[in-house]
Structures are given as C-alpha cells and as structure tokens.
Specification:
It is built from three helices and nine strands. By secondary structure, it is α+β, with helices and mostly antiparallel strands. It folds into two domains: 37 residues, no CATH class; 127 residues, Nucleoside Triphosphate Pyrophosphohydrolase (Alpha-Beta Complex). The N and C termini lie far apart (39 Å). The chain binds zinc ion (ZN). This is NAD(+) diphosphatase.
C-alpha cells in the first residue's frame, strides 16, 4: 500500500532523501518518513498423523479449487498464534505444533505470506461459516487439487523437498 497522504495527519506527502533508505515519502507536518506498507498473512498446510492434508474450499474464492488455511496477522499477534487461531477458526482443529517453512510475496495483493506446517490430530472438521467445505487429502491428491502456481502448492512442494531430506 502506497500512501499519498500522511496516515496520521492527512497532509499530502513530500519526498525526502534519508540516509541509506534513499528518497522516501515524507510528512513535513509530522517530520517523519511514511514508508509503503504491505499486509502480512500466514498460510499453513494442516497435516495429521497419517500424513493427510486438510484443504478447504471457499466459494467466494473458487467453486472448484481447494486452498490451504490462511489469514491476516492481527496487530499484537505473532505469526504462530495466527496459525493456531486460523486453524481453529476455519477447521475447528487444535494445532499440536506449528513450524515455519518459508515466506512468499503475493504481488497481486501486496501481501507477504509466511508459510507454516501445522501438525494436528485427525478429527472431524467443525468449519467456520467462511468455509464451504473441508476435506482430508493424501499428499498426491493435494498436489492435484491445489491450483497450479498458487502459493499453497509452492508451500506444499517446498515442504516436501524439506521433508524428503529428513
Ligand atoms: Zn503527518
């Protein structure tokens, strides 16, 4: 997100050269630089003890493609807590262990997505109203059901690369 006006006082931003940062948007009224912002989100593979992956379908995103659990990090929350909260909200499952894998920049929405793997115990889902369907898939099925070139499939492939090394 690029600011045109200062988010604190509303003044139109100027440009100013500041040390190593180079030329940055600057509010002359607040006397401070106003850096561009991006959103920070998590996405997580949810994997049970049988190595099955929980994927969800949200009709406002797609009627056919599955996605993995994802959500915005709220101010004051660390990324691990966001993972635990989103898995509980969207699937009704308790995360036993959440491990960071890799980050992905989603340019279309100016989002930095932090990719995790969440271990859970296999159970029936208690899905949120935002979710239309959740299902357990084998890893091979998950690779077929995730959209090509999506961040979710990149995360799954990066996880498998790491997992196969272990
Ligand atoms: Zn200002």
């Amino acid at each position: 997100m690029k600011f045109i006006h200062c988010p604190y006082c509303g003044e139109k931003l100027d440009k100013k050269s500041i040390g190593d940062e180079g030329v940055v948007p600057y509010c002359n009224n607040c006397e401070m630089p106003i850096f561009d912002l991006m959103y920070t989100c998590i996405l997580t593979l949810v994997i049970n003890e049988f190595n099955e992956i929980a994927l969800i379908r949200q009709e406002y995103i797609s009627k056919t493609n599955y996605v993995c659990v994802a959500g915005h990090i709220k101010p004051g929350e660390d990324a691990e807590n966001t993972v635990i909260r989103e898995v509980k909200e969207e699937l009704g499952l308790d995360v036993v262990n959440a491990r960071y894998i890799k980050s992905y920049y989603y340019e279309k929405k100016d989002m930095l997505m932090l990719g995790f793997v969440s271990k859970v115990k296999k159970d029936s889902f208690n899905i949120s109203s935002e979710v239309d369907e959740a299902q357990w898939f084998s890893i091979d099925e998950a690779l077929v059901n995730l959209k090509d070139a999506s961040i979710a499939i990149k995360l799954l492939k990066d996880y498998l690369k790491e997992y196969n090394k272990e």
